[in-house]
Specification:
The complex is a heterodimer of chains A (526) and B (214). Chain A has helices at 4-8, 18-39, 53-79, 82-104, 121-144, 148-151, 157-181, 200-220, 225-245, 254-332, 339-367, 379-389, 391-396, 416-435, 489-499, and strands spanning 375-377, 400-404, 411-414, 442-449, 455-460, 502-508, 514-520, 523-524. Chain A has 526 residues and is of the alpha+beta class. The two termini of chain A are 27 Å apart. With 214 residues, chain B is of the alpha/beta class. The relative contact order of chain B is 0.11. The chains are: A alpha+beta (526), B alpha/beta (214). Chains A and B meet through helix 10 and helix 11 of A and helix 1 of B.
Chain lengths: 526, 214
């Protein structure tokens, strides 16, 4: 089976939108109007016989059908669907059968008669063409609904295409041979090079019926955009036949021209729609590529910010140590060394060294990902574990803990230590903001699953809350409201959550305090 | 009648300068205190901008060593606030997060220096010394202007009027005609004005008038 997202990107598997359906209806109605005008008010008009019309029309049709066939073969090579192979062969068939048709058309190459065959050949080739293509459509409709094992081509793509083209060519040659060599034996459907005979409808009606059968089959099994547009084509095929005979069964009459125009339309429809779809899909692809690049750049910016934060945090104690050492040297280098002050300087240096080590340790805990793999884990367990970890601190500050766990929570895939780091930072922040003020101190940690199947965790406190002017800044690296804060806790949290395809945001808690939510889209059902 | 006794203002050269340090990092703060003490500079340490703004600043040459990132009011925000309040104290920004845009921003806002941590002690001391010199000059100028204003206020309105006219370059006779006094009276007023303004020459009096903007 082809990958689902690949299927999504091809016409034959794209389901038509409402707009597509409306456009299809508009095309049908537009052409019907044309038919009524040609068969009604304009039926008395006798246009000039333009001999160049037939070769021009045939050439355009041939090019259209060939390109459509090529595009469909290209789709087949991606999807390997037998149905697509059949409909592509159908377009090869319509393209090829145009060749004997124009050769047999009276007055195109030789005045008064066809280059090959007799008077009847042209019309019989026309019938073969219409009945033949409709048969291909029926084949397409039947095969595409078949069971999955039979739907796909297992052999090589090249061989399949070659075989289809070869078989179709043989079919066209056979039809042409019958129409040309046995012309005399075929029922007479034309009177002369211009007028159709009264028996024409007796052959035309069954041919139109084949198209109608194809239309019905497509209707029953309609699913994709290609189905929709083939239905339009079959509809046009079906109205072409009666329009050729009524009201004037004469070539180069106004309705004969109308039939040719309808034929041209039906031959171009699938091509136009495919080209339109290819452009749309290309645009979508470009958008996706651009989006991915922006995402990568955003991640790089975050990386830079984190690197800058680390540099800042390490430089801070280093700076203190260097300055203390400088000051100590100055006290010692005095004419009368001040040993007491020098000692104070040395103590400063020692304290600075310890603080630097603590900073480095903190950074390592946050970024220690090497050799660790993501595994599926239970967020509820993680919350319980983290609460146990912080129980001492929470109790010391008389903070009441409420844990509202959704026990139906599915497992999520993630880095246990990193996610715990997020919980620790959020709970520590909550705790510190509650210590800062008097009043009830309640830390509420909840897990839940939303309607989209995303797993979420919220950490709510009754602390100082977030000022409206800070809402946008709290996740920025280096921003802090604490006197001894690094200003990197929340920015690290956000990086971790985003690395888990999730989101981290803050909201005010009622009546006071703040709630931090994070959600992960990556979950696996337990 | 209250006798106006001008309080002789102390020349700033004799006053001990102060360096104010604001940094939330205790290591950096304390080490800067040590460094300034080691060269005999008086330093006052603050952990936040708020703590500093609650301190009343004495009129002594001083400068501010200010960390850019501070809890609450940031270094830049404090600078803006000081500018708004018309407190003209030289500021040396320090940061462990320095980049070019940040330093450009600081210098444009009127900082005297921008130093990234960790720094060489001599760089910091040079910057502080330059800032204090600058502040001393500013303070002296301010004080001189203040003294002049006080002296000028001690003149009678007639003396002030005569002094202003003298400064425009008019002769005694012309002044006399303009204010409707005798030339001799004008001379007396001028003499009093020069004495009260402690001007040793007519040229000095004219210069004083210029400095006072009259």
């Amino acid at each position: 089976m082809a990958a689902p997202e690949e299927e999504f990107f091809v016409l034959s598997d794209l389901s038509p939108g409402l707009t597509q359906k409306r456009v299809a209806l508009a095309v049908v109605f537009g052409l019907l109007v044309l038919v009524f005008i040609a068969a009604g008010p304009l039926s008395g008009v006798q246009p000039r016989r333009i001999d160049a019309f037939v070769p021009a029309y045939t050439t355009a049709m041939f090019v259209n059908d060939s390109i459509t066939a090529i595009l469909l073969f290209a789709q087949f090579s991606i999807l390997r669907s037998r149905a697509i192979l059949i409909i592509a062969s159908g377009y090869v068939f319509t393209a090829l059968i145009l060749i004997p048709w124009i050769l047999a058309f009276p007055g195109v190459f030789v005045p008064g008669r066809g280059l090959i065959g007799g008077l009847q050949s042209t019309s019989w080739l026309y019938f073969s063409w219409h009945a033949g293509f409709s048969m291909f459509v029926i084949g397409y409709a039947l095969v595409k609904g078949a069971d999955p094992d039979r739907r796909l081509w297992r052999g090589t793509v090249g061989a399949a295409i070659f075989l289809s083209v070869a078989l179709t060519t043989v079919l066209v040659l056979a039809a042409a041979y019958v129409c040309v060599a046995f012309e005399a034996m075929l029922p007479r459907v034309v009177l002369d090079s211009l007028r159709l005979s009264p028996s024409w409808p007796y052959v035309g009606a069954p041919v139109a019926l084949v198209s109608i059968v194809a239309l019905v089959l497509l209707w029953i099994r309609r699913r994709s955009m290609l189905d929709l547009w083939l239905m339009v084509v079959m509809f046009l095929y079906a109205i072409e036949i009666p329009l050729s005979y009524y009201p004037t069964p004469v070539r180069f009459s106004i309705d004969w021209y109308a039939v040719r125009i309808i034929g041209f339309f039906s031959s171009s429809l699938v091509l136009i729609v495919m080209l339109y779809e290819i452009t749309t899909l290309y645009g979508r692809l470009l958008g996706a590529v651009r989006g991915r690049r922006q995402e990568r750049e955003a991640r790089m910016v975050t990386g830079e910010a984190v690197a800058a934060t680390i540099a800042h945090e390490v430089k801070q104690p280093l700076s203190g140590m260097i300055t203390s050492a400088d000051a100590g040297l100055r006290f010692l280098n005095r004419p009368l060394p001040d040993l007491e002050e020098a000692e104070a300087a040395f103590k400063q240096i020692v304290a600075g060294g310890h603080r630097a080590a603590a900073v480095v340790d903190g950074i390592r805990t946050i970024f220690k990902t090497e050799g660790r793999k993501r595994a599926s884990l239970d967020l509820n367990d993680l919350i319980r574990e983290t609460l146990a970890l912080m129980r001492g601190d929470l109790a010391k500050h008389r903070i009441r803990v409420e844990a509202l766990m959704d026990e139906r929570l599915p497992q999520v895939v993630g880095d246990r230590v990193q996610l715990q780091q997020v919980l620790v930072i959020l709970m520590t922040n909550a705790m510190e903001s509650m210590i800062a003020i008097d009043g009830s101190r309640v830390l509420c940690v909840a897990s839940h699953m939303d309607d989209d199947g995303h797993v979420g965790v919220s950490v709510a406190d009754t602390g100082t809350g977030i000022g409206p002017e800070d809402t946008d800044r709290i996740f920025n690296p280096l921003f802090t409201t604490k006197s001894d804060g690094m200003g990197m806790g929340l920015s690290i949290c956000r990086s971790i959550v985003e690395a888990h395809d999730g989101r981290l945001w803050a909201a005010p808690n009622m009546p006071r305090g703040a709630i931090f939510h994070f959600s992960s889209t990556r979950s696996v059902s337990a | 009648m209250i006798k106006f006794a001008p309080k002789s203002s102390q020349p700033s050269a004799e006053v001990e300068p102060v360096v104010y340090v604001i940094d939330d990092d205790s290591g950096v703060r304390d080490s800067l205190g040590l460094l300034f003490r080691s060269v005999g500079l008086r330093a006052e340490l603050f952990r936040s901008a708020k703590e500093f703004t609650q301190r009343k600043l004495p009129p002594v040459p001083s400068c501010l060593v200010l960390d850019v990132r501070l809890p609450g009011l940031s270094g830049f925000e404090l600078h803006a606030e000081l500018t708004r309040a018309d407190v003209d104290i030289p500021i040396i920004f320090i940061t462990a997060h320095g980049d070019i845009p940040m330093s450009v921003r600081a210098m444009k806002a009127g900082a005297v220096d921008f130093i990234t941590k960790p720094f060489r002690d001599q760089d910091m001391l040079d910057a502080v010394s330059a800032a204090i010199t600058r502040d001393r000059i500013r303070l002296d100028a301010e004080r001189a202007r203040f003294d002049l204003q006080r002296l000028f206020a001690s003149l009678t309105s007639r003396e002030q009027e005569v002094m202003a006219l003298v400064a425009t370059g008019l002769m005694n006779k012309q002044i006399a005609a303009q204010v409707g006094l005798s030339e001799i009276t004008v001379k007396i007023h001028r003499g009093h004005a020069m004495k009260k303004m402690q001007a040793r020459s007519l040229a000095e009096l004219v210069k004083m008038a210029g400095a006072l903007g009259i």
